[in-house]
Amino acid sequence: MTDTDVDSVAATWSGAPKPPHSVPAAADIVIIGGGIVGVSTAWFLAKQGIDVVLCEKGYIAGEQSGRNWGWVRVQGRDTREIPMMLESLRIWESFATELGEDVGFFRGGCLFTANSTQQLQSFEDWVRIADDYGIGTRLIDAAELKQHAPGAAAAWTGAMLTASDGRAEPHKATAAIARAAERLGARVLGYCAVRGVETTGGSVAAVVTEHGSIKTSTVLCAAGAWTSMFCRSLDIDVPQLRVLGTVARTAPAENVLNGNLFDDRLGIRRRQDGGYTVAHGAVLEHPVTPSSFRYFFKFIPVLMQEFKIVRLSFGRDFIDEWSIPKRWDLDKVSPFERTRVLDPKPHLAVLKGIRRNLDAMFPSLADTPIIESWAGMIESSPDVAPIIDSVDSLQGFHVATGFSGHGFGIGPGAGKAIAGMLTGKNSGIDISELKLSRFFDGSPIRPQASI
Ligand SMILES: Cc1cc2nc3c(=O)[nH]c(=O)nc-3n(C[C@H](O)[C@H](O)[C@H](O)COP(=O)(O)OP(=O)(O)OC[C@H]3O[C@@H](n4cnc5c(N)ncnc54)[C@H](O)[C@@H]3O)c2cc1C
Questions:
Q1: Does any ligand 1 atom lie closer than 6 A to the CB of residue 178?
Q2: pLDDT tens, residue by residue, 36-78
Q3: 133 lies in some domain
Q4: Which of 18, 207, 295, 358: disulfide with 239, CB 3.0–4.6 Å?
Q5: Closest residue CA from atom 14 of ligand 1
Q6: Which domain holds residue 435?
């Protein structure tokens, strides 16, 4: 990778800090977090002429939204997410004209491969769900799979294919949406950590940033992996844990695959620049922290579901989280400024595994160098579905988090739904099953999709 590489992923979260000169004294709505969920919400609010300010402690898309695989898929999703995701696909399609910027969206299809007839049959349940929504997912045999992945050497039995799924480029998309929101009047402030929220009589009165306070009656906390900690300081319990994913990209290479492909050993997709974004299909690392114990019982179902791919690690993360108090003074440097960007290191053993699996699966890429690698902390709710809700105990405070490993694709649709929640207007997207209370009212916690 060179310094002038326009497709550098790490450029998203590096470069000269650009703190705002000042913050607005007041706003109708303040959004905490400049990931795809926050900026998409800001864009939909700004389209309606609403006075919205978005505060991001580091860089727009500096955390999950700039580090993900770039898959934009409905295939395999939790049924509660499907209406939002289908709307999201329509929004992604419209971005080319609506944003006036290219975000690399392309419907190349999404493949989940099967190594046996039994594994192929296990996809049938989801194909039936897709049928109910008219999605057009189908099972394909090895011969048809070869047409979609001409360079693959693996002896797959077949695959589940959703041809209308696709990808977009994470290093472009979120920043482009933020710029479009700004053009419509939203104020998007980078290097502007929100330290906390001031309340009066049980309602939101202001957000306190490192650069001053903004009076407001409505706050959206879309703080990604920081949401649980932020909310805890307000006595709002949001169960959330993190897993680390290691990702890499290759130099441009010949066409061995048209779209996205997930195999037990490799997740791979063609990039707009002609390279491939690659990750291990079966390794996620959960750094054990005090939150792991706090939320252990709620996460048992997902741990049982994912026990083959989630590895526990014990180290610095435990002490880092332990050392953060439940509350802090809002006039002093907060934990959010201390960690401007959550920038975990890629796991070297996992990178070796990615290289090994890539070469075995796509032998003609064996000489294609990996030119960049990075890692990201994926945050998840106990049932791997998002939490999008207004908080009863604090009037005017709203949460949107828990998007797990699928929030990039659904981000624009989520933004539309959340804008509806914040303004009280019907967005046409049903989010009634994504309430925070489902983790506290005795409802069974049942993950439908994987992380
Ligand atoms: C390795 C990896 C692979 C993934 N692959 C895919 C994929 O292929 N497809 C897909 O759909 N999804 C994928 N995801 C998931 C997806 O990236 C996330 O679900 C999505 O980006 C979440 O967006 P967000 O806006 O909620 O959070 P984030 O992108 O994490 O944004 C939250 C922002 O809030 C900021 N913030 C936090 N606290 C404060 C504060 N107090 N003040 C101001 N700012 C604050 C943070 O700095 C951060 O930038 C992947 C994620 C990872 C890490």
A1: no
A2: 999 999 999 999 999 999 999 999 999 999 999 999 999 999 9
A3: yes
A4: 295
A5: 405
A6: 10-109+164-439
Residue 451 domain-assigned (yes or no)? no
CA dihedral 208, 211, 212, 215 (to 10 degrees): -60
154: CB partners within 8 A, 6+ apart: 113, 263, 360, 361
Picking from 163, 197, 229, the residue at the C-terminal end of a domain is 163
CA of 423 to the centre of ligand 1 (A): 23
Q: What is the pLDDT of residues 69-113, one digit of tens each?
A: 999 999 999 999 999 999 999 999 999 899 999 999 999 999 999
Model-wide pTM > 0.90: yes
pLDDT greater than 80 at residue 4? no
In the block, residue with structure tokens 């407001």: 216
Instruction: Identify the residue whose tokens are 């997207």.
Output: 429
Q: Ligand 1, from 43, 68, 280: best to mutate by most atoms within 8 Å of Cβ?
A: 68
* Same-domain status, 174 and 144: no
User: What torsion, rounded to 10 degrees, do the Cα atoms 225, 230, 231, 232 define?
Assistant: 110
Q: Is 416 in the pocket of ligand 1 (CB under 6 A)?
A: no
Clarify whether residues 90 and 132 are in a common domain.
no
